[in-house]
Amino acid sequence: MNPIQRRLLAIIAVALVFASFFYYLQKKSENNSNLLVLYGHVDIRQVNLAFNAAGRIERLYVQEGDEVKEGQLLAELERERYEANVNRLKAQVEAQKAVLAALQAGTRKQQIEAAKAAVQKAEVLFQNTEREYLRLKRLLEGNAVSRQAFEGAETAYQAAQHDLKSAQEVLSLAIEGPRKEDIEAARATLASYEAALEYALQELKDTRLYAPSNGIVENRLLEPGDMAGPNIPVLTLALREPLWVRCYVDEPNLGKIRPGMKTTILSDSFPNKTYEGRIGYISPTAEFTPKPVETTELRTKLVYQVRVFVKDSQNELRLGMPVTVKIDYQKAVE
């Protein structure tokens, strides 16, 4: 092969290399046109935990950085005062139950028998005094007895009549039993005591502080011995579930995404690992791009907040960690 032919082949080879390179760039550009890249961070959500009761802290069971589960006991107040109040109200409830039961049961049989005996005794006394009164009355008409003796018999007769009537009323009340109004009043008093006991039991329960959800103890603000109350935070809890990324999209790309689209999340801490996610929320209103977004060209534009829910079974993504979110339009929705 002569020098001219070799030179020609070299030119052809170089041309093929450039053609392949430009073809690759064109395909890459076409592929990138289907890819949206957003920047954001793992969202930090905090809860300030406080007791719903007032008192002195007796125990704290967690330290800063501890992971806690929903329903886990975190702290306790001194409980003696609340327990004493519960015991007092329990005694009141039991005593009032006994009062109501006695009223509902009515008069005892022995009481009724005693009332009947009193009536019989009063009847006998009345009959005796009545006979004596009538006898002296006849004698007085014949001037066979003094008026003073007659008036004494008359007074005894009237007293016996009154005593008999009183004994009969006592027997009637014993047979009828307590009034309905008295029973209802006793029942209302019992309900009041029971409501007070329920409130006291809730106050006793409020002396314990439980985790409202899974998270990490971020700050331990008080210590055992400190006074706590409903308006005094004891712990700050950083929530981990659900875990999402807060990022922002500019208006030209807003129409390309919608809730439910799949995403890929990358972090600098694990550059060779990706995490699955999906768009869960797109803000309906625009805002100026916040400083945490690091892309310079977006800082002066209006953007829309996007929340991307992330699957992180290994618990590798930390709250506040900056991440990159990639959305491939062709693969985002199956």
How would you describe what is shown here?
There is one protein chain. The chain has 334 residues and is α+β, with helices and mostly antiparallel strands. It folds into three domains: 34-45 and 240-328, Efflux pump adaptor protein, beta barrel domain (Elongation Factor Tu (Ef-tu), domain 3, Beta Barrel), CATH 2.40.30; 46-76 and 207-239, OB fold (Dihydrolipoamide Acetyltransferase, E2P) (Beta Barrel); 85-202, Orthogonal Bundle (Helix Hairpins). Helix content is 45%, strand content 25%. The chain is built from six helices and 14 strands. The chain has helices at residues 3-32, 80-105, 109-141, 147-176, 180-205, 251-254, and strands spanning 35-42, 46-49, 55-60, 67-68, 73-77, 208-210, 215-220, 227-228, 235-239, 244-250, 262-267, 274-288, 302-310, 322-328. A hairpin with a 6-residue loop joins strand 11 and strand 12 (274-288). Helix 2 packs antiparallel against helix 5 and helix 3 runs antiparallel to helix 4 (147-176). The longest helix is centred in the middle third of the chain and has 33 residues, at 109-141. The model has no long low-confidence stretch (mean pLDDT 82).
